[in-house]
Amino acid sequence: PDVIIEAQFDDNDAEHGQDHLQDTLTDDIKKLSLDTGEKGKAAGVTGVHRAKQDDGPKVNDPKLLPDEFLQRTAKVVYILEKKHSRAATGFIKLLADRNSELFKRCAMFSPVDHRVPRVYVPLADCPPDFVTKPEAYSQMLFICRIVDWKEDSNFASGQLCKSLGQAGEIEPESEGILTEYGVDFSDFSPEVLECLPQNLPWVISPGELAKRRDLR
Question: Which of 123, 138, 142, 155 is deepest in the core (most CB within 10 A)?
Fold first, then answer.
C-alpha cells in the first residue's frame, strides 16, 4: 500500500542540501513498505485492508519521525526585562470605519519603525482640530508611548506624549530618535554647569597645549 511520510526540516537541513533529506525519507519508506508487505502476506487480502486501516503506520505520530525533522516549540512564560522604551515616533490618522464606536474615541498611530505595532490613541490626546482637519497633521511627527496590548486586540493601546514637528526636519527627527532609545537630552543641571570654567572667554593654556596632541 502507498505510504505518505510528512517531514519537517529546518535551515540546517537546507544547508546540507536535499540529498540527506531524500536518503532519510527513502529509508523510512522502505522500512514501512516492508513492514506492511509482511503483514499483508501473513493475513491475506482481507488482512491487508485491516492492517492498512488499523495497524498501518501513523505518519502523523512524531515518534515515528527522526529528531532532525521535528520542529521544537516553546512558550514564553515570563518577561525578565523590558528592553524597549515603549516610545515610538510616527503619524496619526483617523480610523477607517467612521460608523464604529471606536472611531469616536480613538485615532490610529502608525510608527515610522515598522517593527513597532500600530497603536490606538485617545482622541483626547490629539490636537483639538484633528477630527475636522486630519490632512493638516498627515506629515506631523508625534511621540507615542505604548501602555497596554490586550490579547484579543490586533493593535496596542497608547498615549500621545508630544508633537515633534514636521517630518523630514532635523530637530524633530533627532528628538524622536533620542526619545525612542531612551536617551536623556534634557538641559544640564546647575551643579554640572558649575564644573565648567566660569571666567569667560576661556582658552587653553600654553602648558596644556604642549602636553596634548592638537586634533582641532
Answer: 142
